[in-house]
């Protein structure tokens, strides 16, 4: 049963896919009308070009940088460290830097297209802390993730509400991965005064903050809210409002998530090797239907259970449909518990809107939750998804997020009344 106070469920229900809905509305778009996926502040803002030989610069650079260019019909698509539904990249990163040598204390926008930071606000006695953790001052870094939602709603309409949140969770995962490489701890925060921040950062209705990641030292000190508003700069070259998404965001931005004790995960990756994995991470586009070993599979599952470093939290459960894993009976599992034995390749391919990668994978994971706050739950699902990508790639196994599935039929197949938030395929 969903808890009675589930915040945002009606916006999940309002974005369900079914066989009929996909048939009626297959999301075809004229590619030439795609809104821009890079945000630029005007030229007069001071910029720092990120130098990857400087560890502080590289820490920030590795959260978002472009790692590959692909050409489709002569158009170049720039792919990044973070995956994104449809490669539309609605998320942006802002970082407040305080007390770091050779960098002016300020709020910076990470200009991904040029690998640079634009200084959009200089700090005096003010900063982001008062919106996020009043009474504290952070020496170090406060990352904010925002969504320029039209980049995604242009194609996926209302369902893009889900993808904005999942992409945001992946972007948090990319920040966590960079933090690990740079020997830094991070804490994720989902419950804070997002609406006041959107207003003071000048986002109007076109961009909204979804999450925060802090890497730094906490000190007891009152920091006041921003003394000036930051001017509005549009993250796309044109814009069409979507009231459904704006309402979904607002409702889920102000209600509390579940709480848990803060605990940090312990990773044991070889750092050099892990860096190579981050820089080369890609979504698999086709599987050769080969099995993966049980040892590797258990390793991947174990990573998904490591603590998420956040006090605001939503519990995610994972159903696994095993198609091809050495020494394991094919079927539907919850953790290691077999629920239903059988070959469900075709069924799962169908449920994921007839996508061959869900049929040909070694295993397809479904992340479900009886959340209290939907915005938080979806981001945690994306964060876990990012871990699955990186650990799979680290083990030489392919992975892809799957945002498109027939909701009710998938729920029925899994035998759960919890909402299905995300699917992930892994295999060879
Ligand atoms: C939330 C989310 C949903 C996605 N859904 C699908 C999907 O349904 N089918 C698919 O083939 N790829 C899916 N992808 C993968 C994206 O298409 C891929 O991340 C994007 O094209 C960028 O490529 P890259 O991950 O190789 O950098 C999804 C990715 C994310 C983050």
What does this structure look like?
The protein is α+β, with helices and mostly antiparallel strands. It has 2 domains: 221 residues, NADH Oxidase; 145 residues, NADH Oxidase (3-Layer(aba) Sandwich), CATH 3.40.109. Helices cover 31% and strands 25% of the residues. It is built from 14 helices and 17 strands. The protein has a 7-stranded antiparallel beta sheet, sandwiched between helices. Strands 14-13-12-15-17-16 form a 6-stranded antiparallel beta sheet, sandwiched between helices. A hairpin with a 4-residue loop joins strand 5 and strand 6. The longest helix is centred in the middle third of the chain and has 22 residues. The protein is globular and about 65 Å long. The model has no long low-confidence stretch (mean pLDDT 96). It binds flavin mononucleotide. Flavin mononucleotide (FMN) binds next to helix 6 and strand 16. The site of flavin mononucleotide (FMN) has 19 residues, from helix 6 and strand 16.
What would the CATH topology of the largest domain be?
A: NADH Oxidase
What structural category arises from helix and sheet content? alpha+beta
Strand content: 15-25%
Largest sheet: 7 strands, antiparallel
CATH superfamily of the largest domain: NADH Oxidase
- Low confidence ranges: none
Please tell me the total number of domains.
Answer: 2
The CATH architecture category of the largest domain equals: 3-Layer(aba) Sandwich
């Amino acid at each position: 049963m969903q808890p009675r106070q589930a915040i945002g469920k009606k916006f999940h229900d309002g974005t369900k896919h079914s066989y009929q809905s996909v048939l009626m509305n297959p999301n075809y778009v004229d590619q030439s009308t795609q809104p821009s996926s890079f945000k630029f502040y005007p030229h007069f803002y001071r910029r720092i070009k990120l130098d990857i030989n400087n560890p502080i610069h590289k820490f920030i650079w590795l959260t978002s940088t472009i790692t590959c260019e692909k050409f489709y019909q002569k158009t170049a698509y720039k792919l990044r460290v973070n995956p994104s539904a449809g490669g539309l990249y609605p998320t942006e990163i802002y970082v407040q830097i305080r007390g770091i040598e050779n960098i002016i204390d300020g709020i910076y926008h990470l200009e991904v297209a040029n690998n640079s930071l634009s200084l959009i606000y200089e700090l005096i006695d003010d900063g982001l802390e008062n919106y996020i953790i009043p009474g504290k001052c952070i020496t170090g870094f406060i990352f904010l993730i925002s969504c320029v939602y039209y980049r995604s709603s242009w194609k996926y309409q209302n369902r893009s509400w889900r993808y904005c949140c999942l992409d945001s969770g992946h972007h948090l995962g990319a920040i966590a991965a960079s933090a690990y490489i740079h020997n830094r701890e991070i804490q994720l925060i989902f419950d804070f005064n997002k609406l006041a921040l959107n207003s003071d950062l000048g986002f109007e209705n076109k961009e909204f903050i979804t999450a925060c990641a802090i890497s730094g030292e906490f000190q007891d000190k009152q920091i006041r809210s921003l003394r000036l508003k930051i001017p509005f700069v549009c993250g796309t070259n044109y814009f069409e409002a979507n009231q459904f998404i704006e309402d979904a965001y607002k409702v889920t931005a102000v209600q509390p998530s579940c709480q848990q004790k803060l605990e940090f995960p312990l990773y044991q990756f070889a750092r050099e090797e892990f860096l190579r994995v981050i820089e080369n991470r890609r979504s698999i586009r086709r599987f050769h239907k080969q099995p993966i070993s049980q040892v590797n599979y258990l390793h991947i599952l174990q990573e998904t259970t490591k603590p998420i470093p956040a006090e605001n939290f939503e519990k995610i459960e994972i159903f696994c449909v095993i198609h091809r894993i050495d020494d394991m009976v094919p079927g539907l599992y919850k953790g290691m518990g077999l629920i239903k034995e059988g070959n469900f390749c075709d069924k799962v391919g169908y449920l994921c809107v007839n996508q061959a990668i869900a049929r040909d994978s070694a295993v397809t994971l479904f992340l479900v939750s009886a959340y209290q706050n939907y915005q938080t739950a979806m981001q945690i699902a994306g964060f876990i998804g990012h871990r699955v990508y990186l650990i799979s790639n680290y083990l030489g196994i392919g992975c892809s997020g799957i945002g498109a599935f027939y909701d009710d039929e998938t729920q029925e197949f899994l035998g759960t009344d919890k909402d299905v938030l995300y699917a992930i395929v892994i295999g060879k």
